[in-house]
Amino acid sequence: MPSVFENRPWLDQYAPGVPHDIDPPTQTLVDMMDASVARFGPNAALDFFGETITYTRLGERIDRVAASLAARGVGHGDRVAIVLPNCPQHVIAFYAVLRLGAIVVEHNPLYTADELKHQFEDHGARVAIVWDNTAETVRGFADELGITLIVGVDMTREMPRGTRAMLRLPIAKARSSRAALTSGGLPAGVVAWAALERGARLEAGHPRPALDDIAALQYTSGTTGRPKGAILTHRNLRANAAQGRAWVPGLAEGEEVVYAALPMFHAYGLTLCLTFAMSIGARLVLLPKFTVELVLEVMRRTPATFLPAVPPIYQRLASGAAEKGVSLDGIRFAISGAMSLPVSTVETWEAATGGLLVEGYGMTESSPVAVGNPIGPSRRPGTVGVPFPSTTIRVVDPDDTSIDRGFDEEGELLLHGPQVFQGYWNKPEETAATLLPGGWLRTGDIVTVSPDGFITIVDRIKELVITGGFNVAPSEVEQVLAAHPSIESAAVVGLESPHGGEELVAAVVLAEGATLDVEALREHAKKSLAAYKVPRRFTVLDALPVSLIGKVLRREVREQLQAGSAAR
Fold it and tell me: Where does the record place the AMP-binding enzyme C-terminal domain (predicted)?
């Protein structure tokens, strides 16, 4: 039967001024950056600890680095690995690589050697632009994998002169801060970043990328195995930046201040900071690592107007600002992603800022944002919102995607739109399992959709626990456990049962001063959950493992519990 969502009932929920569809992209990311340089030239583009770079200067530096990379053999379709924290060199490298029609491959600079090596083996980049603290790691497998050029980046060179001088003071705090930012030197055979900026600018006639050329390989989080490289084209990423721009009425182009508190090697940070912020001529304040103290210090100097982040960041900033007496006024827009946004966090944040905090939803394979709560009175906390402009959805039987579900019926969410990726790098079987005929993206998320189009996430298909023949959604159990006063946070997973199948196990972090009372927790859970949903075992952990953007890693929780003994 046809999908009940074909008529897009959610369009009535859009904030005034938000178009139903965006114009198809005509600019590559390179064209987009050129347009921002021409339009916003004297404005500050990047702000790093107070040191600013104008759009004009940014464009010049991108050209010089692109010319140097071209002279070293980088050309159309070549993969270039970027292994950097948030810093000016990251932005410059990203657009310089794209200017040549080459492909950016983003990496977490805190990955282990094994994690990085696996990804390099997969994408085959011969050139890597890396944080100097990571240079030795990459150098360790460079010869084996045929990496011919490693460029080392000391990001402290982009800081104000006074800040750099303070980092060199012979005191413990200065030494510690400096070590966290730079190694202070490069291994043999690694080229210093400065060498890339010494040459002439790129010739005007140098070939440029096309809209359907690959712009980036973004590695997924790998919650169901080793990470896979999602193929994102200029069209995909340009479309998502345009969708984000359309979603936020009231943005003042050339005047916004966007904080890059999210890592730009993550799809969420890449789109909201590297592309969206640059497309509107914003001042992008680069934070190499999120700390409450650093953000509040920057707020005193250059207050944000737009802050993309994750729920724990909003909660910690609001608490920290209240404690330190720092005003958060002026942050008009905040978009939360990657994990569920508690209504209490929305209330706390909006009381502190006077602005709006809404939840969005997406995945690396959708560039990444596909759904969001409207920026206006129709928003609905507790849901992830409605589909973006030019985006449509289906809800289907996860075991047979040809069977459509209706309103308020649980099923797997499928996405369709210009931001949907092209597949996984060199993985045709995984691509075929995820990208269905017609360009429909399987999200792996079980949802319900209200008659007016608001989407509620029920759980991940692949994290459902089957116990006693029944499916259990871990997030449902976690929410109940976290509501107990003795529990600070919880993660629920399935472990192999000695009786066959799986049994439900909860890892909990206790509130300060609390002790584990298993029977009390079970009685509490039974008030809200069917008996089969109550965990059979409980284990106390000091902290739950989380990703760099704060998402609980259930796979790592499961591995910890399998390796240890559970408290009963």
Answer: 476-550
Q: What is the CATH number of the domain that holds 468?
A: 3.30.300.30
Q: Quick count: other Cβ atoms within 10 Å of Cβ 211?
A: 18
List the domain range (segments joined by +) for residue 548: 464-563
**Peptide bond preceding 368 in cis form (omega within 30 of 0):** yes
Inside any domain, residue 353 = no
Residues 6 or more apart in contact with residue 70 via CB below 8 angstroms = 100, 202, 206
| Nearest Cα residue to 137 out of 112, 106, 108 | 112
Q: What's the structural domain count of the chain?
A: 2
Spatial CB neighbours of 349, under 8 Å, sequence gap ≥ 6: 314, 315, 317, 318, 334, 355, 357
Q: In the structure encoding, which two tokens stand for residue 247, read together?
A: 């979603």
Q: Within a domain: residue 540? A: yes
Rounded to 10 deg, the angle between the 29-40 and 55-71 helix axes is 140
- How many whole angstroms separate alpha carbon 123 and alpha carbon 129? 15
Q: What is the DSSP string of 259-303?
A: EE-S-TTSHHHIIIIIIIIHHTT-EEEE-SS--HHHHHHHHHHS-
The verdict on residue 179 lying in a domain is yes
28 CB contacts (<8 Å, ≥6 apart)?
Answer: 98, 208, 209, 210, 211, 213, 215, 234, 238
CATH assignment of the domain containing 107? 3.40.50.980
Query: Strand pairing of 257-260 and 229-233?
Result: unpaired
Q: How far is CA 423 from CA 324, 394, 432, 433, 442, in A?
A: 47, 19, 8, 10, 12
pLDDT of residue 470: 67
Per-block mean pLDDT, blocks of 10 residues, the chain (568 long):
83 96 97 98 98 98 97 97 98 98 95 89 98 96 98 95 80 81 90 94 92 96 64 98 94 97 93 97 96 95 95 92 95 88 90 94 94 93 94 95 95 97 95 95 94 90 71 82 93 79 90 92 88 90 85 87 63
Domain C-terminal end among 176, 193, 209? 209
d(CA 232, CA 29): 12
State the DSSP code for 244.
H
Last residue of a domain, one of 209, 229, 250: 209
What percent of the residues of the chain are helix, what percent strand, and what percent coil, each to the nearest 5? 35, 25, 40
In order, the DSSP letters of 434-495 are: HEETTTEEEEEEEEEE-TT--EEEEEEGGG-EEETTEEE-HHHHHHHHHTSTTEEEEEEEEE
Question: Quick one: tokens of 390?
Answer: 């030019």
- CA 7 – CA 31 distance, rounded (Å): 34
Q: Give the pTM.
A: 0.86
Amino acid at position 338, single letter: A
- Classify residue 203 by burial, with Cβ atoms within 10 Å: 0-12, 13-18, 19+: exposed
